[in-house]
Amino acid sequence: MSELVTAAQMRAIEQAAISSGKVTGLALMERAGQGVVQAICETWPELTIGAHGAVVLCGPGNNGGDGYVVARLLAARGWSVAVFAYGDPARLPPDARANYERWCRVGGCAPLTALDDSTFSDAAVTVDALFGTGLTRPLPSEVLNALMFASTRPNAAAPQRPPIVAVDIASGVDADSGRVIGGDEQGDELPYWPALTVTFGAAKVGHMLLPHAGDTRHKLVVAPIGVEDDIARAYLTWNVVEHLDLAAVRHIDLLGRPDISLQALELAKDVASHKFGHGHAVILSGPAGRTGAARLAARAALRVGAGLVTVAAPRDAMAENAAQLTAIMLREAEGAAALADLLRDKRLNAICLGPGLGQARARDLVPVALDATRDRDVSGVVLDADALSAFADDPVDLFTMLHDGCVLTPHAGEFARLFPDLSARLNAPAMTGPAYSKVDAARDAAERAGCTVLLKGSDTVIADETGDAAINAACYDRAAPWLATAGSGDVLAGLVTGLLARGYAPVTAAETAAWLHTEAALSFGPGLIAEDLPEELPKVFRALGV
Ligand SMILES: NC(=O)C1=CN([C@@H]2O[C@H](COP(=O)(O)OP(=O)(O)OC[C@H]3O[C@@H](n4cnc5c(N)ncnc54)[C@H](O)[C@@H]3O)[C@@H](O)[C@H]2O)[C@@H](O)CC1
Ligand SMILES: [K+]
């Protein structure tokens, strides 16, 4: 599954399934609880033998209802289960209330305030079923304190607290943005880090975004509850234009889904093809002493399959580039007039400006590149690094020149320079849910810029001017911390450029490049430096069956 859903989308899916008579809310809740127990057993197989202890914390809504199911199912396996509730169980919604009552026939239930150190002494896991997708405001202090108490070792001599399993999502985290409601500006610190999160039907958008996705030891399991086909069907109708609130967000997974796998197959080259059929990418180089970034991008463009790649350098950087390029061609392009001249050749169909370019050169050359490509059907322009920062004083000047063949690849700092209001909104503390998310920010930026925006991070978001959005999450089992290395962004810009040269649509080029970039890092592993990324692509292609 690669669909991601918002809380509202998930509620709509569940409601439709229940209204159609296909399933009851109680049955969905039972499957959710079963999914949690199964994921616990798969994560810690040693817990499948013998009886163990569990602490289950239940909230005032259906997330709490899932908790009562988990408590009952664990008790049925012979576990000793201690349940603590927040709120008045008499006011639980009907399905959760029914499961509370079923649990009460099996065991007791204490208020959350009754937690103490002895509660955890025999527990193998703590289950957080306090709040799920219904969270709309900061956690009550009683709940926050309980979660911190359940996750913090009281003193150095005491044993570690048991790992915490989050039901659906860690309580306190907004399912749409991955942000902590009521968190501070600095870092949205989670109340605790789950060892395991078990969500239902499909991952929520917030699972793939920081801070929720920020811990590499955190495992995410999507448990099926029988609405997966409904999600896939609904996905086709979540029309981004008519229902922006239901606009679809995908998790990029070239291995995972038949239609996306088509993208993977497109990476293959036709047997009868020749180099001129795969486009010609141009990477603008900076001055002498700053040429490495352009060569990294050029190498990536060539490896990802552009037929021809040319580095266009100022006069003083020609010798330096010539000494280090072989398959990649080199042309002199000193200033704006020289670039305009070069781009008269319409076979040059993808241009990358930014890596190592220098801001003065960027200011000169970006307008030329955008002008030369505006009215061509099959020409793409990637603007990265200096090509973005050069317009910090007047972003609107840049936006009026951009066209729908462009891809902007800012990191958070460059994004803040071009879209200061969106960045401020994203970084302001989130006090209500659904909170403004990185997906919202990328979508708003793409709409304003009128082109594709790839907002970098371990939770890279790609959005285009139509509202289409996707996340490449280098998180959980795809965590690739070695990607945070000098030159890694230059390679990414080169990958996008190479795919544009091959004729990919801008948004598809950006999505595919982001995914390949992470896969190359995962394939290489620890010790990775930027130069390794293009060289690792053949292995990634082979694994894809290209
Ligand atoms: N039939 C269904 O709809 C299913 C729901 N499921 C579970 O139900 C969860 C969603 O349940 P709910 O919509 O009841 O919501 P939650 O259980 O997440 O929250 C309960 C209620 O608390 C209130 N609330 C929100 N923020 C609060 C705060 N900071 N302090 C105090 N109260 C607050 C809201 O009114 C909210 O509805 C999912 O996360 C999932 O775990 C699953 O059982 C699958 C089936
Ligand atoms: K929870």
Automatic annotation (TrEMBL):
<keyword id="KW-0479">Metal-binding</keyword>
<keyword id="KW-0520">NAD</keyword>
<keyword id="KW-0630">Potassium</keyword>
<comment type="similarity">
    <text>Belongs to the NnrE/AIBP family.</text>
</comment>
<dbReference type="InterPro" id="IPR036652">
    <property type="entry name" value="YjeF_N_dom_sf"/>
</dbReference>
<feature type="binding site">
    <location>
        <position position="171"/>
    </location>
    <ligand>
        <name>K(+)</name>
    </ligand>
</feature>
<feature type="binding site">
    <location>
        <position position="128"/>
    </location>
    <ligand>
        <name>K(+)</name>
    </ligand>
</feature>
<keyword id="KW-0521">NADP</keyword>
<dbReference type="InterPro" id="IPR029056">
    <property type="entry name" value="Ribokinase-like"/>
</dbReference>
<dbReference type="InterPro" id="IPR000631">
    <property type="entry name" value="CARKD"/>
</dbReference>
<feature type="binding site">
    <location>
        <position position="411"/>
    </location>
    <ligand>
        <name>(6S)-NADPHX</name>
    </ligand>
</feature>
<keyword id="KW-0547">Nucleotide-binding</keyword>
<feature type="binding site">
    <location>
        <position position="63"/>
    </location>
    <ligand>
        <name>K(+)</name>
    </ligand>
</feature>
<comment type="subunit">
    <text>Homotetramer.</text>
</comment>
<feature type="domain" description="YjeF C-terminal">
    <location>
        <begin position="258"/>
        <end position="544"/>
    </location>
</feature>
<keyword id="KW-0456">Lyase</keyword>
<feature type="binding site">
    <location>
        <position position="489"/>
    </location>
    <ligand>
        <name>AMP</name>
    </ligand>
</feature>
<feature type="binding site">
    <location>
        <begin position="62"/>
        <end position="66"/>
    </location>
    <ligand>
        <name>(6S)-NADPHX</name>
    </ligand>
</feature>
<dbReference type="Pfam" id="PF03853">
    <property type="entry name" value="YjeF_N"/>
</dbReference>
<comment type="function">
    <text>Catalyzes the epimerization of the S- and R-forms of NAD(P)HX, a damaged form of NAD(P)H that is a result of enzymatic or heat-dependent hydration. This is a prerequisite for the S-specific NAD(P)H-hydrate dehydratase to allow the repair of both epimers of NAD(P)HX.</text>
</comment>
<feature type="binding site">
    <location>
        <position position="168"/>
    </location>
    <ligand>
        <name>(6S)-NADPHX</name>
    </ligand>
</feature>
<keyword id="KW-0511">Multifunctional enzyme</keyword>
<feature type="binding site">
    <location>
        <position position="490"/>
    </location>
    <ligand>
        <name>(6S)-NADPHX</name>
    </ligand>
</feature>
<dbReference type="Pfam" id="PF01256">
    <property type="entry name" value="Carb_kinase"/>
</dbReference>
<feature type="binding site">
    <location>
        <begin position="132"/>
        <end position="138"/>
    </location>
    <ligand>
        <name>(6S)-NADPHX</name>
    </ligand>
</feature>
<dbReference type="GO" id="GO:0046496">
    <property type="term" value="P:nicotinamide nucleotide metabolic process"/>
</dbReference>
<dbReference type="GO" id="GO:0052856">
    <property type="term" value="F:NAD(P)HX epimerase activity"/>
</dbReference>
<feature type="binding site">
    <location>
        <begin position="456"/>
        <end position="460"/>
    </location>
    <ligand>
        <name>AMP</name>
    </ligand>
</feature>
<feature type="domain" description="YjeF N-terminal">
    <location>
        <begin position="10"/>
        <end position="233"/>
    </location>
</feature>
<dbReference type="GO" id="GO:0046872">
    <property type="term" value="F:metal ion binding"/>
</dbReference>
<feature type="binding site">
    <location>
        <position position="293"/>
    </location>
    <ligand>
        <name>(6S)-NADPHX</name>
    </ligand>
</feature>
<feature type="binding site">
    <location>
        <position position="356"/>
    </location>
    <ligand>
        <name>(6S)-NADPHX</name>
    </ligand>
</feature>
<keyword id="KW-0067">ATP-binding</keyword>
<dbReference type="GO" id="GO:0110051">
    <property type="term" value="P:metabolite repair"/>
</dbReference>
<dbReference type="InterPro" id="IPR017953">
    <property type="entry name" value="Carbohydrate_kinase_pred_CS"/>
</dbReference>
<dbReference type="InterPro" id="IPR004443">
    <property type="entry name" value="YjeF_N_dom"/>
</dbReference>
<keyword id="KW-0413">Isomerase</keyword>
<comment type="function">
    <text>Bifunctional enzyme that catalyzes the epimerization of the S- and R-forms of NAD(P)HX and the dehydration of the S-form of NAD(P)HX at the expense of ADP, which is converted to AMP. This allows the repair of both epimers of NAD(P)HX, a damaged form of NAD(P)H that is a result of enzymatic or heat-dependent hydration.</text>
</comment>
<dbReference type="GO" id="GO:0052855">
    <property type="term" value="F:ADP-dependent NAD(P)H-hydrate dehydratase activity"/>
</dbReference>
<dbReference type="GO" id="GO:0005524">
    <property type="term" value="F:ATP binding"/>
</dbReference>
<comment type="similarity">
    <text>In the C-terminal section; belongs to the NnrD/CARKD family.</text>
</comment>
<protein>
    <recommendedName>
        <fullName>Bifunctional NAD(P)H-hydrate repair enzyme</fullName>
        <ecNumber>4.2.1.136</ecNumber>
        <ecNumber>5.1.99.6</ecNumber>
    </recommendedName>
</protein>
